[in-house]
Amino acid sequence: MNIESYREYCLKKQGVTEEFPFDNQTLVFKVMGKMFALTDIDLFSSINLKCDPENAVQLREQYNEVIPGFHMNKKHWNTISMEGILPDKLIEEWIEHSYQLVVAGLPFKNPKGFRQRQSIIHNKFRFEDSVHFSLNNCMESFKYSNLG
Question: How many domains does the chain have?
């Protein structure tokens, strides 16, 4: 996977924005203001993705390209080497998992039109549906949840 396909895959998810909150080379993807993926745009040697803690350890044991999150909470984040031999489909599944974890933790309960379904098959992440929600409804929920 190259940086263009990584960026395109992240941005096609609903509610996602890209920004540079730390410096001019660390590209961060957020859903509703919460990070789910980041990388160094100059090197693109690795990406950081959020991961369920139990599965984070399992992935680190299974793949040499996966290590505890660099400069991140190592319990909840993995750093994935982009210089290895991991297939794009697997990296996309991990990006989807990261996105789904962040969406599930957003501060509003099931906004109108929001639907999420995930399944774990053979201890690997296979997400059958992406998140479906109306961005306008989510923005309204987010705006009102931050008023007090």
Answer: 1
